[in-house]
Every structure is written in C-alpha cells, then in structure tokens.
Amino acid sequence: GDPGRAGARAARARGGMPVTKHLVSEVGVAYRLLRKGVPRAQLEIQGRLLDAAGQRGSVASIIRVVHRDGKAMSAANASTALHLLAEAAVAGCSAAEVESSRSVCPSLLDSVVAGAGVRPQDLAAASWALAKLLVDDPGLLGALAGAVSAGVAGFDGQEVATVAWAFASLRAAPAGGLFGALAGAAAGDAERYSPRHLVGVLWALAAVRAHHQDCLWAAARVAQASGARGWSSQDVANALWAFAVLRGGAPAPLPAAAARAASLGWGAFP
C-alpha cells in the first residue's frame, strides 16, 4: 500500500498529526542513505522527528527531540523539524503550541544555514516553515536570505518559487537583494520552470513590488512561445495581475493569456 496513506491512518488512529508523504521513510531508504555517506546518527534523529510527528501532542514531542538532539542536528534534520512544526500549525494546533514552535526556530534555523552540506531543499523548507509560523524576525530572515542568495544557482523552480512565496507572504524586505537573486535565477532558467513555479515567482515579485525586467521578459517570452499551454486559470490570473502591478517592466503576454483563458472557458475563473 501507499506508505504515506498508511502513516496518515496510523497517526490519525493515535490522535497525532499525519506525516507528510514525502517525509515518510520508504523501505530501504536508510540503507541507501548510509551508502551515500549520511551518518547513522542523523538518520536516527530523522526517525525520531518523524515518530514524534505521528504522536498525540506532536508539537511537544517534536520539540523534545529538538532539545535532545539539537546540537547534533544536520541541516536536513533541522529543516525537517521546522517543516513538521509548521505543518502542525497549518493543521490547527493551539496558539500556545505555535508559540512554542516559534521559540525553537532560532536554533533550528542556525543549524540549517550553518550546517555542513545544506541543500537547496533545506533552505526552501525552512523558508516555507517560517512563513507558515509567521516568524518575522529580521535577524532570522536576513540570515536565511543570505544563505539562499549565496546558493540560489543550485535551486530548481520549485525551490525558487517556495522561497519567493515565503518571503513575499511575510512581506519581508531582507537584505542582500534576495528577490533580485530569485528573479534572476528564474529568468535564466524560465523555459525549465513549470507554469505554476514561474508564475509563483512573478506573483511574489508583484506582492513586494520588486521590479525585475529580465524575469518579466523571460516569463512573457515563455508564455508567448508556448501559448500558455499547461497554465491553470489561477496561473493566468496571477500572471496578468503581476504584469499589471509591475507595469513598465515588460509587455504582458496578453494574446497567449487570452487564448489560454478561452480554451479553459470562462467558467474556470472564479
């Protein structure tokens, strides 16, 4: 059966929080990670975090693991802890639990940005988590923005869009030109981005009024060349809104957007 569904059913039976499917360990994954040189201690921490997330009172259980293993956590461990705490907040944990989650964010984020072998997905997961937990501390966001800017060349479309959404949602204005770095990455690889990710970057730029002509021109070029095929009604609406807000940067791909809207049918637009 589906290990994600099985984990969710087991968690619900215990009264805990369902563990996100992509975090659930599949059979043999520990062996493969050990073969890749991931220390066993870090795998054990990851296992304790996932076990804690499935327990009743998952937030307290996750935080106990953080307090126990914090100094030994890798960037992947810390980003997983942040992700799980944020998922608990999204699922509707108490205000006191959210506050407890926020209290461990500084130490966890330090493990992410300063950890050896930090990966783009760790930084993206941490960004998403801080946004969901409504952590708006300038120092924390500045440190995270600096780490993202330094490694953005290795980010894929989903990771760029996730970070852009997170910082835009917090209406954060981090130092170091983060939005420029994200927009530059998207502009340079726009043809490889899915419509949702490319438009997601445009939405974030418009939300914080960050003008980036190269990104706008790249998005317009991709939309026109593809006829906006594969764009959802939300993609069309968000892209046109972004071009309207950031007017003057590049002409909106109106012919492609109109053709795609017509093919979707006006009933697809809320």
Automatic annotation (TrEMBL):
GO biological process, one term: chloroplast rRNA processing
Signal peptide feature range: none
UniProt GO molecular function: RNA binding
InterPro entries: FAST_kinase
Protein name: Uncharacterized protein
A single Gene Ontology CC term: ribonucleoprotein granule
